Task: structure prediction
Amino acid sequence: MTQKAIDEAQLDMSTYDFLANLDVSADSSNMSITIQAESRDPEEARQMAQTLADVFVRERRQWNSEQQKSDQIEVSKVDDIRDVPLASPKVKFNVLAGAIFGAIIGAVIVFFLEWLQSDVLRTVSDVEKAVGISVLGTVPTSARPEAGGGSLDCQRG
Result:
């Protein structure tokens, strides 16, 4: 049926593409079938759904003509294609939401990292406050030892 619909609507796609952009669902409570088609072009989506529905109805009627009255299944289209707006991404909204959520997540990460490093002792005064006594020496922060062979700061306390 999909190949017949593609041929009738003169669509430039394979049956796999046609079926990938199609959603067919059955509702047993009212014995109906709903066909929904998606495409970047709204007119192409309407053609896909409308033509497939027409082909289905035509084939069922042809099948019914070959069956006895008790075996026939009556098929008809209830609604024509409804004009449903195309569901496309909202670029401005998505960019704004991404920026806001990115800023929030970035701030949370910065606060978390600062909290993790808040108890790291970096200066002599930090060590003296934490320990409560005077510092007698420190390790030099320079990567290369100076010409004098290194240094050790000493304080009297």
About this structure: Residues 121-157 form one domain. The chain has three domains: 2-71, 89-119, 121-157.
